[in-house]
Amino acid sequence: MLLSLVVHGQISKGTMDDKQQIEQLYKRQYRAMIAKDIATLDTILDDSSFLVHMTGTHQLKKDYLREIKNRTLNYYSVEDDEISITVNGDTATMTGRSRVNAAVYGGGRHTWRLQMKSKLIKKDGHWIFVEQRGSTY
Fold first, then answer.
1. Which of 2, 31, 98, 128 sits most deeply, having the most CB atoms within 10 A of its CB?
2. What is the DSSP letter of 108?
3. Residue 36: DSSP 8-state
4. Which run of H or of E encompasses 31?
């Protein structure tokens, strides 16, 4: 059964349960990034997943996790402004707009208005990220 869910002012189709799971997964991912919880991030990101940073750099999961662990990527806090989710069976897209406080690649600590466009799949009953593309908003 398809239902509409309003998440921070956005309406899209999918089951309430799926949308809630995806929103919680997004928030769980940021908590894990801040805590440098590589084990949790490993379960949230598909083995084939990749991230495209706002600089355009394409990064595979293993490299992304390594850079969080070795403190090349340091995340301190996140405040969500808007999350929109569309579910289509066992695939979904999500756009999260959040203010992320971080220090990356040797730069100083700064708060970015980061938009993350993500693709997810449902595997064994659980949602996981397969692609994420960051930009500013």
1. 98
2. P
3. T
4. helix 16-35
pTM greater than 0.70: yes
Token look-up 């956005």 returns 10
Cα-flanking dihedrals φ and ψ of residue 90, to 5°?
-100, 20
pLDDT tens sequence across 36-78: 999 999 999 999 999 999 989 999 999 999 999 999 999 999 9
Q: Are 92 and 22 in contact (CB under 8 A)?
A: yes
Question: Is-contact 116 96, C-beta < 8 A?
Answer: yes
Q: How many other C-beta atoms lie within 10 A of the C-beta of residue 83?
A: 20
Residues 70, 38: contact at Cβ < 8 Å?
Answer: no
CB-based contact 5:83 (threshold 8 Å): no
The rounded distance, in Å, linking the Cα atoms of 137 and 116 is 10
Angle 64-65-71 (CA atoms, 0-180°, nearest 5)?
A: 90
